[in-house]
């Protein structure tokens, strides 16, 4: 009788161990599924953030430019102009602008190279010249490239910008603006996720992302994808809200952000919650030094940053070497 009892005890022990392993595995899966991230100051499951952010920008797309002007008193235009000057693109530059649905960076890119070409040549009769193109009152005329999109991508001397955004509503706003400016070439539009770009490796000379990366669930994956799609020698540049170091200025900035901007959102766009989220998302984004470390960890070299307006925003740069 002793032997059968031992066998039964052994079988029970094995079943118990199997059950424990099953429960542990189930617990790990549940923990993975329930992994949280931030959405503003809220903690939410990671798999919900993309949809929530999509909804925010779907809501604000039609009033995005108006609100940017109102919230920053137009300063965002100066930041973006400076951003493009720091990039310093030349004829032949192939740019990927991510989270750039409304085209602010893309249009400045085209304008910058157009002005560069004008300064290098006495012949101002550029094919398909666009008369009267203006980003705002101070902007000058912009001409589009005369070649088709496919020819542009094949021609190493033709500049081109691909605008990528996960939100179709934002892309639609950008397309409408391009049509109103008369731009029919020199740029293309792509719906895609910054964390998993639908693009091949080593394609672009430069990668830009302006005021978009903080809305992504995994910032490190976005930077890694930027590294992947850039050619060797390519440059990553990010313009993003950052940390104001001065305590007095930070207090003033915080009061303005939380007390004024959501109210503006309600008055101008009838949307308090979306702009409350945008303000909160700024505070959740890594500061200048921490984000620089993320860029380095992705493989970039010569990593640097430049504060704008006391650190309200910062330009981050790195090279794929």
Short structural description:
By secondary structure, this protein is an alpha/beta fold. It is built from 12 helices and 9 strands. A 7-stranded mixed sheet has the order 5-4-3-6-7-9-8, sandwiched between helices.
Can you walk me through this structure?
The radius of gyration is 24 Å and the shape is globular. It has twelve helices and nine strands. It starts with a helix and ends with a strand. 50% of the residues lie in helices and 18% in strands. The model is unreliable at 15-29 and 124-150 (pLDDT under 50). It has a seven-stranded mixed β-sheet, sandwiched between helices. Strands 1-2 form a two-stranded antiparallel sheet. With 321 residues, it is α/β, with parallel strands linked by helices. α2 packs across α11 (272-284) and α10 runs antiparallel to α11. Pfam families: Ubie_methyltran. Residues 138-157 are annotated as: Disordered. It catalyses: a 2-methoxy-6-(all-trans-polyprenyl)benzene-1,4-diol + S-adenosyl-L-methionine = a 5-methoxy-2-methyl-3-(all-trans-polyprenyl)benzene-1,4-diol + S-adenosyl-L-homocysteine + H(+). Component of a multi-subunit COQ enzyme complex, composed of at least COQ3, COQ4, COQ5, COQ6, COQ7 and COQ9. Interacts with PYURF; the interaction is direct, stabilizes COQ5 protein and associates PYURF with COQ enzyme complex. It is an enzyme of class 2 (transferase).
């Amino acid at each position: 009788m002793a032997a059968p009892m031992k066998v039964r005890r052994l079988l029970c022990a094995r079943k118990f161990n199997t059950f424990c392993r099953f429960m542990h595995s189930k617990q790990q899966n549940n923990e993975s599924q329930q992994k949280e991230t931030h959405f503003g100051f809220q903690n939410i499951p990671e798999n919900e953030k993309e949809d929530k952010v999509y909804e925010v920008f779907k809501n604000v797309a039609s009033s995005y430019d108006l609100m940017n002007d109102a919230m920053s008193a137009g300063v965002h235009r100066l930041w973006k102009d400076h951003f493009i000057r720091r990039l310093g693109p030349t004829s032949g530059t192939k740019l990927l602008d991510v989270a750039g649905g409304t085209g602010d960076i893309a249009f400045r890119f085209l304008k910058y190279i157009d002005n560069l070409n004008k300064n290098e040549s006495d012949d101002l009769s550029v094919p398909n010249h666009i008369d009267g193109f203006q980003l705002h009152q101070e902007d000058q005329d912009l001409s589009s490239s005369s070649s088709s999109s496919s020819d542009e991508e094949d021609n190493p001397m033709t500049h081109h910008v691909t605008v990528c955004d996960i939100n179709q509503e934002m892309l639609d706003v950008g397309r409408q603006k391009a049509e109103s400016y008369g731009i029919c070439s020199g740029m293309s539009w792509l719906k895609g996720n910054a964390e998993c770009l639908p693009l091949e490796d080593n394609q672009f000379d430069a990668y830009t992302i302006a005021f978009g990366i903080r809305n992504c669930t995994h910032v490190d994956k976005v930077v890694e994808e930027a590294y992947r799609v850039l050619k060797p020698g390519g440059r990553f540049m990010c313009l993003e809200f950052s940390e104001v170091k001065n305590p007095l200025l930070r207090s003033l900035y915080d009061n303005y952000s939380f007390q004024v901007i959501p109210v503006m959102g309600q008055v101008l766009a009838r949307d308090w919650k979306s702009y409350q989220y945008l303000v909160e998302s700024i505070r959740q984004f890594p500061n200048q030094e921490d984000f620089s470390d993320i860029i380095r960890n992705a493989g970039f070299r010569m990593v640097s940053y430049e504060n704008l307006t006391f650190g309200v925003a910062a330009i981050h740069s790195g090279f794929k070497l």
